[in-house]
Amino acid sequence: MTDTSIDERPRHLRIANPKPARNRQDALVILASSLAAVLLSLIVAGLVLWVSGKDATALFEKMWENLTSSNKLYEMVDRATPMIIAGVAVAIGFKMNLFNIGVEGQYLMGVFFAAVIGTQFELPAVLHVALIMVVALVAGSLWAAVAAVLKVTRGVNEVIATIMLNALALNLIDFLFTEYFRFESASLDVKTKPLPTTAWFPELVSGRLSAYILVALAVALIYWLIVFKSRFGYRLRASGVNAGAARTGGIAAKKMILASMLLSGAIAGLTGLKYLLGESYAYGPTRPEGFGFNGIAVALLGRNHPAGIVISALLFGFLDSLSGPLQIAKIPSSIVLVIKAIILLGVVIVNEVVSVKVARRTADRTAAQLEVAGAAA
Amino acid sequence: MGSHTLAVQLVGIEKRFPGVIANHDVNLNVREGTIHAIVGENGAGKSTLMKTLYGMHQPEAGTVHVMGELRHFRSPSDAIAAGIGMVHQHFMLADNLTVLENIVLGAEPVSRGVIRFDEARARLTEIMRSINAHIDLDVPVSQLGVGQRQRVEILKVLFRGARILILDEPTAVLVPQEVDELFDNLRQLVNDGATVIFISHKLDEVLAVSDDITVIRGGTTVAEVKPGEVNRPKLGELMVGSELPSPHGRTSEIGDVVRLKVVDITVKGAGSRPAVDHVSFEIRSGEVLGIAGVEGNGQFELCQAILGLEQHTDGTVELNGDDITRASVQHRLEGGLSYIPFDRHREGLLLSSPLWENTLLGRDGDQQFVKGPFVATAAVKKDARQVIADFDVRTPSELVPAFALSGGNQQKLLVGRELASLPSVLIAAHPTRGVDIGAQAAIWDRMRAARDEGLAVLLVSADLEELIGLSDRILVMFDGQMTAQLTPAEATPELLGSYMTGAKQEAA
């Protein structure tokens, strides 16, 4: 083992460096397997309809109609918007091995306090919207902080804490709403005091698509920068991969739990603003629901990657956009839930199988390359 | 007793893992009714070979014969069916169940859906009498000591009808008196016609107890000897090979500057006794302080306390003259402390992350690796390539995930990372554990070179050759306390061994 041989080695190995090909290959395997899960779910959905005596072909006809109608595609993107944000919020937790089930409660807190505090100010349009977004960020973040503090100080599992906090958020908001913030109006539509038009979010396509999609895409981009490119993100991912090694490497576990939960909650807080600033302009009982849980599904399906999250959210948005046409075609729209559930199950199973396979292939290939390199040297 | 028939015969076994050939051309002949020792260094391939025999993985080449019959074990249950039982180094017992329940678990004698505990008890009493062991079958395992738990594991294997027992480093966790009891039991067992294969690297006990000895070095069997034919040094030479890295001969001087000063450190233990009990020492620049001790005597807690991962209840730590007793881990690392951890998988590496993210761990405070809030990926990768080249890490590139490397190369990467930040103090816990001899020599060379440049090293090791070879002073840690201090010249494995097991040093 002379010095020259040490210096030689990396150079000739770099020539044989097959990393880009491998990356592309593995990405293709993952993409193909995810697509397979989607196809499988469609087949099962068709079978379910057929067995229950419904018109299965109508499902696929409606799908095709939706895919070819620009209005329906706007609806798909519009419906995907909050799911992108919720998916990112969940993915931040996943990257750190934290399961934030509380996105649901966090964005409800965000919506409610944004609606309530947003009416207290008279501001120019851009500033007003910005202020409301800050309020939603802070509200979501503080609600997530409860779970984070419980975990850091008392070791309470964040899954339990955030589930409880979801229930608590609902009841707390109901109480505050009915006792203090109900706006008495002439109509039967019970809501908080409506936001002035300065707080309204613009639309990209009038009546079809809110410009809030741009916020969602920005969130995905910021997520990528923070988690995959920044030093903080490196520390977060290191803690997620191996908490013990991260601790030994000087990454304070408690600080990281706090920081990642606060960040996750803050992003979650933005989820409901499309509804508030783009549809209802006030908080009311028709509040948005279920995006926290859709976010979990979207993050899983998108493998916590920003592009994956956006694509998965679009897929879910597309499925949701089917519910109206399906009802008209006398097909129970709950078939959409069946499809989503099967996709999710399929992807989870496929993920497990594929990641084990990919890991084994990587190890084998590394060994094989070493043998080739050794023979060439 | 038919001592001429072979209970186990392995011929030409080869076993590969990604990047390493763990066993090749291994031949083993174990006579029925004997105690057969398999000796070799850490990482020589002993455990791999036993896993092959026990059906935990399949060899790429070679044959396994048990009691004269050719066998292909696809899983441990095949091996158990053939009468082979294995007692692992780490016990697998359910704490809350009684001894009897633990032993029958998975092999319950049942009639009409009811476990026949009386039948099991009768059989066990018979087995215990035959090997001269006595354990209360009705106490929960949680109340037993380590030696008794091991006895339970052995009974478990015998209860399943094993006639060939494999024991993986059975004495590693035992105190000397327990070792004697164990060997007494094993002797009874072979007198009854059973066969025992035991793995060890403790030469004295191997010479004392075994009938035959097979030596494994570098993944292959190099010698088969009888205890009468060899003495301890001869056996050691067979085990390590002629290329025993020369431990001595330092050219540099120990400096004057105290790099690490530890005063009266006390760390709370699990029970009433402290894990670390008023430990004090100093390490100067260019000095290596070795800590000898049986594992679990407080070395881990001591290292954790110095690194800042363990809240010690008392005492102070000074790094380069600064009191860091209350400082964060990150602050200590940035202050020039470095740590090769006990368990590279649990504390050292991000196995699923690429190598360059691994070499960054603990060093992301260094300005050259960050650009504003972002990681300077190009600089980190360049540094990773440097570590890989400097420490001869066998890998196609810095982009492969750490799990794809062999253990020795993972360790080289880890040591490389810790030395790359040019620390002033290195805590090295088992720096060459589980690596092959080539990697071991390389790691020792790098550590010596860094020491000659003024690095202060706290070396914790179970490898006495390593301790004696590298250290300038050796402290013995027993039961949380430093119980003896020696120079490497006066330290022999025998002397260290007696202090490590509790013998008191005469006040000099």
CATH class of the largest domain in chain B: Alpha Beta
Radius of gyration of chain A: 24 Å
CATH homology superfamily name of the largest domain in chain B? P-loop containing nucleotide triphosphate hydrolases
Number of helices of chain A: 16
Backbone structural class of chain B: alpha/beta
SSE-based structural type of chain A: mainly alpha
Trace the largest sheet of chain B across and list its strands: 6-9-10-3-11-12
Described by strand count, sense and barrel closure, the largest sheet of chain A is: 2 strands, antiparallel
* Separation, N- and C-terminal Cα atoms of chain B: 53 Å
Can you write the helix and strand succession of chain A as a string? HHHHHHHEEHHHHHHHHH
Number of domain modules of chain B: 2
Classify the oligomer.
Answer: heterodimer
Strand content of chain B: 25-35%
Count of extended strands of chain B = 24
What keyword list fits this structure?
heterodimer, A: 377 residues, mainly alpha, two-stranded antiparallel ribbon, disordered N terminus, B: alpha/beta, Rossmann fold, 6-stranded mixed sheet, 24 strands
3D structure, described in words:
Chain A has 377 residues and is mainly α. Among the domains of chain A are: 84-308, no CATH class; 336-368. Chain A has helices spanning 3-15, 19-51, 56-68, 70-95, 103-118, 125-154, 158-181, 212-229, 231-241, 243-248, 253-270, 273-280, 291-301, 306-320, 323-328, 335-376; strands at residues 203-205, 209-210. Chain A has a two-stranded antiparallel ribbon. In chain A, helix 2 (19-51) crosses helix 3 (56-68) and helix 8 (212-229) runs antiparallel to helix 14 (306-320). The longest helix of chain A has 42 residues, at 335-376. The radius of gyration of chain A is 24 Å and the shape is globular. The two termini of chain A are 13 Å apart. Residues 1-21 of chain A have low confidence and may be disordered. Chain B has 508 residues and is α/β, with parallel strands linked by helices. Chain B has 2 domains: 6-240, P-loop containing nucleotide triphosphate hydrolases (Rossmann fold, 3-Layer(aba) Sandwich), CATH 3.40.50.300; 258-336 and 423-500, Rossmann fold (3-Layer(aba) Sandwich). Chain B has 17 helices and 24 strands. Chain B has a 6-stranded mixed β-sheet with strand order 6-9-10-3-11-12, with helices on both faces. In chain B, a hairpin with a 2-residue loop joins strand 23 (473-478) and strand 24. In chain B, helix 13 packs across helix 14 and helix 14 runs parallel beside helix 15. The N and C termini of chain B lie far apart (53 Å). The mean pLDDT of chain B is 86. At the A-B interface, helix 1, helix 9, helix 10 and helix 16 of A face helix 10, helix 11, strand 20 and helix 13 of B.
